[in-house]
């Protein structure tokens, strides 16, 4: 069985997700105690997809988050580094004309400058070896006046919640994973990557560094997850000044 480590080498991460792709959505639902669907709904509302818009959903996996974005008539490009995830997504959603799947590296996106009305990523940025380079790419492909939405595991600000959450990651989740996942070792990386990920204020600073304005975040589930947003200035060039 394959798992990535915190060096997050792209080939390791892709191979790990290839191996868990078939049952990935089911396992996530179990591990999140049903909250994964609520977090996806919150991210979809934050993106606010509109008919005729072109939206990029990065680290889209099997397309579960992408499908919701198409329901108002937006065209969604579901991009993921894992060939296995993309294959499952294409098979599951072959009948959706508003959804296309593209294998892509978040740090070197195969898209033109200023191409998308919105760029979003859910629970994938912490898997990127150079997340700030990825944010620069998000900015590049976002249209001036367009928006970015990032939904990611974060740091609960209240100490007792934070302690209980990390106890769950370290002790409870591994036991659940052994029952729910085809690759329990891969999910050891999940807990480690969450614990190592920077807090809400740091990610907000990275978004501003990338060039986005109106940067803000909202905690979900007491800060276990944070929903970050930003807007590319309407008069922006491709790169921030």
UniProtKB/TrEMBL annotation:
Q: Spell out the molecular function terms from Gene Ontology.
A: demethylmenaquinone methyltransferase activity
Question: Which residues are the signal sequence here?
Answer: none
**CDD domains, alphabetically?**
AdoMet_MTases
* UniProt entry tagged with the keyword ATP-binding: no
Sites binding S-adenosyl-L-methionine sit at 62, 80, 105-106, 122
- According to its UniProt record, the EC number is 2.1.1.163
Keywords noted in UniProt: Menaquinone biosynthesis, Methyltransferase, S-adenosyl-L-methionine, Transferase
Q: Which GO terms describe its biological process?
A: menaquinone biosynthetic process; methylation
Keyword check for Nucleus, yes or no: no
Provide the catalytic activity annotation.
a 2-demethylmenaquinol + S-adenosyl-L-methionine = a menaquinol + S-adenosyl-L-homocysteine + H(+)
- Pathway(s) this gene product operates in, as recorded in its UniProt entry: Quinol/quinone metabolism; menaquinone biosynthesis; menaquinol from 1,4-dihydroxy-2-naphthoate: step 2/2
The record, for InterPro entries, names: SAM-dependent_MTases_sf, UbiE/COQ5_MeTrFase, UbiE/COQ5_MeTrFase_CS
- NCBIfam families found in the cross-reference section: MenG_MenH_UbiE, PRK00216.1-5
Give the family from UniProt. Belongs to the class I-like SAM-binding methyltransferase superfamily. MenG/UbiE family.
| Protein's job | Methyltransferase required for the conversion of demethylmenaquinol (DMKH2) to menaquinol (MKH2).
Would you tell me the protein name for this molecule? Demethylmenaquinone methyltransferase
């Amino acid at each position: 069985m394959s798992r990535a480590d915190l060096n997050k080498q792209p080939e390791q991460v892709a191979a790990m997700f290839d191996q868990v792709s078939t049952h990935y959505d089911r396992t996530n639902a179990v591990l999140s105690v049903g909250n994964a669907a609520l977090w996806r709904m919150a991210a979809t509302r934050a993106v606010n997809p509109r008919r005729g818009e072109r939206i990029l959903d990065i680290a889209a996996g099997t397309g579960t988050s992408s499908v919701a974005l198409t329901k108002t008539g937006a065209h969604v490009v579901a991009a993921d580094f894992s060939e296995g995830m993309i294959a499952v997504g294409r098979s599951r959603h072959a009948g959706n004309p508003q959804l296309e799947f593209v294998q892509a590296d978040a740090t070197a996106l195969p898209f033109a400058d200023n191409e998308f009305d919105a760029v979003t990523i859910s629970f994938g940025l912490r898997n990127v070896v150079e997340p700030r380079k990825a944010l620069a790419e998000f900015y590049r492909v976002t249209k001036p006046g367009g928006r970015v939405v990032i939904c990611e595991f974060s740091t609960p600000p209240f100490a007792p919640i934070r302690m209980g959450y990390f106890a769950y990651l370290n002790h409870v989740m591994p036991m659940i994973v052994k029952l729910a996942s085809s690759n329990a070792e891969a999910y050891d990386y999940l807990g480690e990557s969450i614990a190592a990920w920077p807090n809400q204020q740091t990610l907000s600073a990275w978004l501003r560094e990338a060039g986005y304005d109106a940067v803000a975040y909202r905690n979900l589930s007491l800060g276990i997850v944070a929903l970050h947003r930003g807007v590319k200035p309407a008069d922006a060039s491709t790169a921030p000044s």
